[in-house]
Write a structure and sequence with these properties.
The complex is a heterotrimer.
Chain A: E1 18-20, E2 27-30, E3 34-36, E4 43-44, E5 49-53, E6 61-62, E7 67-76, E8 84-92, H1 112-121, H2 134-139, E9 145-149, H3 159-182, E10 186-192, H4 196-206, E11 212-216, H5 225-232, E12 241-245, H6 246-258, E13 264-270, E14 276-282, H7 287-293, E15 301-305, E16 312-314, E17 327-332, H8 347-351, H9 358-366, H10 370-375, H11 386-390, H12 397-458, H13 465-495, H14 501-543, H15 550-576, H16 583-611
Parallel strand pairs in A: 1-14, 9-10, 9-12, 10-11, 13-17
Antiparallel strand pairs in A: 2-8, 3-5, 4-7, 5-6, 7-8, 13-14, 15-16, 15-17
Chain B: H1 3-19, H2 25-29, H3 31-59, H4 65-87, H5 89-94, H6 99-114, H7 122-151, H8 162-183
Helix pairs in contact in B: 1-6, 1-7, 1-8, 3-4, 3-6, 3-7, 4-6, 6-7
Chain C: H1 2-28, H2 38-45, H3 59-67, H4 80-91, E1 109-113, H5 123-127, E2 133-134, E3 142-143, E4 163-167
Antiparallel strand pairs in C: 1-4, 2-3
Helix pairs in contact in C: 2-3
Classes of the chains: A alpha/beta, B mainly alpha, C mainly alpha.
Bound molecules: iron/sulfur cluster (4 copies).
Chain lengths: 612, 184, 193
């Protein structure tokens, strides 16, 4: 692919010095993924912890300078469409009193996970969230390839080159530290051919170090993680390699070796294509301050955050910069360009580094046909923005690709959540069913035991206690069944939830009533069993004369078994016709079957007891 | 008969074929295979009809050409339709290979071939049959993909759908007429 | 000679036609026998909120009713219009808009139990279809936000009304790019250049 003509050749920071912005009057820090641990009005010192990471993706926020917290709440952020997100406003007091944080004295002993968490606490951010992803660090899999990405991620950015020129030694130190702790099989610093000054600065250091310098020749989107991995990873390494931005690595070195949390970053402020300034700015500095430092006023210019290809316009200059603000582009204000229909010139297709057909993709994305967009390989779009830049019709190609891929991601997440919910719901149903069965079994067993005990108490070898005992058993079974019915009713709020709240209250009240009734029934059954046992005891002497004691009992057992079988057959038949209308019948049949089974089981139990 | 008439005739035929296709999701997904299948079927019918005519001519010379040719073309169309019906009825129906359409294509695309002035020798007539089948396939494929492409044009609402397609068919027919007139 | 050539070409064309027919036959019937039953495929599309707003006792019963053709496809508010479109495509029916009296669609929310007010009655646990509430009798209860589907079934049973719905917490991954805005040039009559 030929180098696109719209891209200016990379310019080196060259002789331009690294500026430092003066202390701004107001700092606005972004609190996404972090929960605030200071209060409004509180005085904080430089490096003091302001917010702790509250999720896997968040990083801690530290005070860039000493001052007072003025506000905590939604603030406009340097994001497209400037959404209001939780932020924190800090008013510096100019004293710059620093808290001295201890350096990690025993850093070589840190594990990968401990290092990742330490970096998160120090507010060191990588491409997505903390520099070392916690999930990755927790897996503790051996690392085949660690790429330190010093390729500028857009043309005419200089932040990374500047960092390497100024702080080559510190970066080398940080890389050695990472190499020592993460133990990658290969540690590579990737840099682009055009970054001559930075390459020179590193060449002198690269000798007898544990890392190599890789000079990349590929044109623009070469700085993307995926592209770098494709370019540098050998096939066997591609599964377990990691790519870290060099700014984050430098900050990690400062944090671990010197105990300095990440509170500033280097920003390129670029006016025209030729003239640009690099400055180290505190995180949260308003954009206007950076412009003033570069000798510009924010009034006459349109501001773009990020590079010229992937950047987005900022609505005003009071917004604070964040860890991803590598570049601010200042352009003369122009009337908004109007989008025209696609003329199928094919410019976008010929410039696309992923060999896609952006015009087709755009058509499907703009009509929300995500399946079609996927078919046209939306997933392969690196969102480099070249197609938008060349489109003569000014179509918002990149924006629609971004939106569509976000929607796809969202759909995927929703699908995952739905699958999890389905699994949990099924398990819950299984659990309820199992609990019900266990409970019925327990109740039946207890009732049987009681009846048997009573029968035994009443008279040792009584044959006539049998029928009454089984009657008692039956009653117990009825009680159990009622208890189960009550239980089922109790679940009704979950099962038939379309009722409104008053109905549901009524249902709950009814459930309680049913439970009470079931308990009463159980008590009654128990009493009946006792009475039956007493009666049996009274009859016992008369019946003791009977010759074959077992016969009636056996007959009854057989009958019970036959009944149970019949009931079960009925229940099966009822279950086979599983239309919702027969639900009640189903239930009845099930209850009957359960009763019959319990009775049969008990009869069998009695038999064994008698055999003893 | 000459190419100036024959080629626009093919365009009209392709348009008719396209209009007969149902407009639902499955038909959309099968539009291109259907076009290719119909093109191949036409090629088979033309080759078969031509071959049979040569055989009939050598067996019993002197029969009236228009009658024999139309009978043989119709016979080859019905033969193909019957074979398809026996072997792959469902797929053939889904691809739009119905017997009336096959008959129509066979007669309208096949008969004029025998009266073209340039198709005097056997090799030339074979060539003409192949080329006309190929052109017919191309036209069918063109009409199969046209609706999608027309959708993306900012056409006035009154032209959307069939009218735009008809206009396209007219333009294609005119262009082919120009080409054919130059050929013959 | 030409006759032989003609025959060869004829055979070639027949062979090609056979291939085309075979490949499109595969496209026509993507091996229906290996597909899961229709109710399962419908269930895979439904959002699994298990809220019962469709009038069935959960997503699977609704899917089964749809598979039997006993209900219409526009009953599931959590699925949204997208869900109806997917159902229509799967069942080969027309898109149906929501009925006028259908419950409104809401953005995804999760339940939050006010832990100070909770009396530990366990009623909400019994109501939750996905076991997203933890707690035991007379102990404070809490909602597992990751598992909560936002079905709102736990709101009504709570005797002290301590459960409220909160919008699902945002993660960096949740942040969305806005819709691309195309500036429209105002064309004034009479100002044509
Ligand atoms: S943004 Fe995507 S489609 Fe456009 S040029 Fe880059 S990779 Fe290609
Ligand atoms: S560059 Fe723009 S106008 Fe040209 S084909 Fe691509 S989208 Fe269409
Ligand atoms: S309304 Fe939708 S989400 Fe709720 S139970 Fe019915 S199918 Fe499931
Ligand atoms: S916690 Fe409440 S809202 Fe969430 S899934 Fe359970 S019952 Fe539904």
């Amino acid at each position: 692919m030929s180098r696109p003509s719209i891209l200016p050749a990379h310019t080196d920071p060259g002789s331009q010095p690294l500026l430092t912005t003066p202390l701004p009057a107001q700092l606005r820090l972004w609190l996404q993924g972090a929960s605030c641990c200071v209060e409004v009005g509180q005085r904080v010192l430089k490096h003091q912890l302001l917010a702790e990471a509250d999720s896997e993706f968040g990083v801690a926020v530290h005070a860039p300078t000493s001052g007072h917290i003025r506000a905590i709440g939604p603030l406009p952020q340097a994001l497209p469409d400037a959404p209001l997100l939780d932020g924190l406003q800090l008013q510096p007091d100019g004293l710059d009193e620093a808290l001295s944080l201890p350096a990690e004295s025993n850093w070589p002993a840190l594990s990968a996970l401990a290092l990742a968490m330490r970096l998160q606490d120090m507010g060191v951010m990588g491409q997505h969230g903390p520099l070392l992803p916690l999930a990755w660090a927790a897996k503790a899999s051996p690392l085949a390839l660690l790429i330190i990405n010093a390729v500028e991620n857009e043309p005419f950015l200089q932040a990374d080159s500047m960092l390497l020129c100024e702080q080559a030694a510190a970066v080398a130190e940080a890389m050695a530290m990472l190499g020592r702790i993460l133990q990658p099989a290969r540690l590579v610093l990737a840099i682009q051919q055009e970054q001559g000054a930075a390459i020179n600065a590193l060449r002198s250091l690269a000798a007898d170090q544990c890392w190599q310098l890789e000079v990349i020749q590929a044109p623009y989107p070469a700085g993307d993680e995926a592209q770098l991995l494709r370019a540098l990873a050998r096939p066997e390494e591609s599964g377990n390699s990691l790519c870290l931005p060099v700014a984050g690595v430098h900050a990690a070195g400062r944090a671990i070796l010197h105990g300095e949390p990440c509170i500033s970053r280097i920003v390129t402020v670029s006016t025209a294509l030729k003239q640009s300034h690099n400055m180290r700015a505190l995180l949260g500095s308003p954009v206007a301050d950076l412009l003033t430092c570069a000798g510009l006023s924010s009034q006459q210019h349109a501001l773009v955050h990020g590079g010229g290809l992937r950047g987005f316009a900022l609505p005003d200059a009071t917004i604070g910069i964040h860890q991803h603000s590598h570049c601010l582009l200042v352009r003369p204000r122009q009337p908004a360009l109007t989008a025209q229909p696609c003329i199928r010139c094919g410019d976008c297709a010929s410039i696309c580094p992923s060999q896609l057909q952006p015009q087709e993709l755009y058509w499907h994305c703009s009509r929300q046909e995500l399946a079609q967009a996927q078919h046209w390989r939306l997933a392969d779009c690196s969102q480099c923005g070249l197609c938008s830049a060349v489109c003569p019709s000014q179509l918002p190609l990149l924006d629609s690709f971004r939106l569509a891929s976000q929607q796809l991601l969202l759909a995927e997440q929703q699908q995952c959540a739905a699958d999890a919910a389905r699994q949990r719901h099924r398990f819950r149903q299984f659990r309820l069913e199992r609990d019900k069965q266990e409970k019925a079994q327990r109740l039946a067993e207890r009732a049987a035991q009681q009846a048997a005990k009573l029968a035994q108490q009443a008279a040792e070898p009584t044959s006539h206690a049998e029928p009454t005992a089984t009657a008692a058993d039956k009653q117990a079974a009825i009680a159990a069944a009622m208890a189960r019915a009550a239980e089922r009713q109790q679940q009704r709020p979950a099962v038939a939830p379309s009722v409104n709240s008053s109905e549901r209250e009524a249902a709950i009240a009814a459930n309680r009533q049913a439970a009470i009734e079931a308990a009463m029934a159980r008590a009654a059954a128990r009493k009946a069993a006792q009475e039956a046992a007493k009666a049996a005891a009274a009859d016992a002497p008369a019946m003791a004369k009977d010759e074959d004691q077992n016969k009636p009992g056996l007959n009854q057992q057989q009958q019970a078994l036959i009944q149970a079988a019949m009931h079960r057959a009925n229940a099966q038949k009822a279950a086979a016709s599983s239309s919702p209308a027969s639900l009640d019948q189903d239930k009845k049949a099930l209850i009957a079957a359960a009763m019959a089974r319990a009775a049969a089981r008990k009869a069998a139990g009695d038999e064994t007891e008698q055999d003893k | 008969m000459n190419f100036g008439l024959y080629l626009p005739l093919l365009a009209g035929l392709a348009f008719c074929n396209h209009c007969r296709r149902p407009a639902d999701g499955q038909a959309d997904a099968l539009a291109l295979p259907a076009a290719i299948a119909m093109g191949l079927a036409t090629a088979i019918m033309l080759l078969l009809g031509g071959g049979l005519l040569t055989l009939a001519d050598s067996a019993r010379p002197g029969l009236p050409l228009p009658l024999v040719a139309s009978v043989l073309q119709a016979a080859s169309a019905l033969l193909l339709a019957g074979t398809l019906q026996r072997l792959a009825a469902g797929t053939a129906a889904a691809l739009g290979l119905h017997w009336p359409l096959l008959l129509l294509n066979s007669l309208l695309a096949g008969l004029p071939l025998y009266f073209l002035p340039s198709a005097s020798s056997a090799a030339a007539s074979l060539c003409a049959a192949l080329l006309s089948a190929a052109l017919f396939t191309l036209l069918l494929a063109q009409f199969a993909t046209l609706p999608h492409r027309l959708q993306r044009c900012a056409l006035p609402a009154r032209l959307q759908g069939r009218p735009a397609l008809l206009l396209c068919a007219l333009i294609i027919a005119l262009a082919l007429h120009g080409l054919g007139a130059r050929l013959s | 000679m030409t006759l032989v050539l003609r025959l060869l070409l004829l055979l070639l064309a027949i062979w090609l036609l056979g291939k085309v027919l075979r490949s499109s036959a595969q496209k026509l019937r993507p091996a229906t026998s290996t597909l899961p039953p229709l109710a399962e495929r419908i269930d895979a599309i439904l959002p699994q909120t298990q809220c019962g707003q469709c009038g069935h006792a959960g997503c699977l019963p609704y899917a089964q009713a749809l598979a039997r053709g006993e209900d219409s496809i526009n009953r599931c508010p959590p699925g949204g219009e997208d869900g109806i479109r997917k159902l229509a495509a799967l069942l080969h029916t027309d898109y149906l808009p929501f009925a006028a009296d259908a419950p409104p669609q809401k953005p995804k929310a999760v339940a939050l139990i006010d832990e100070a007010t909770c009396i530990g009655c366990t009623l909400c646990i019994q109501a939750c279809p996905v076991d997203a509430i933890l707690g035991s009798a007379k102990q404070m209860h809490t909602v597992l936000a990751d598992e909560c589907t936002g079905c709102e079934l736990c709101l009504a049973p709570c005797p002290v009304d301590c459960i409220s719905m909160r919008p699902a917490t945002s993660q960096p991954a949740d942040w969305r790019w806005g819709y691309p805005v195309i500036a429209i040039k105002a064309v004034k009559p009479g100002s044509s250049s």
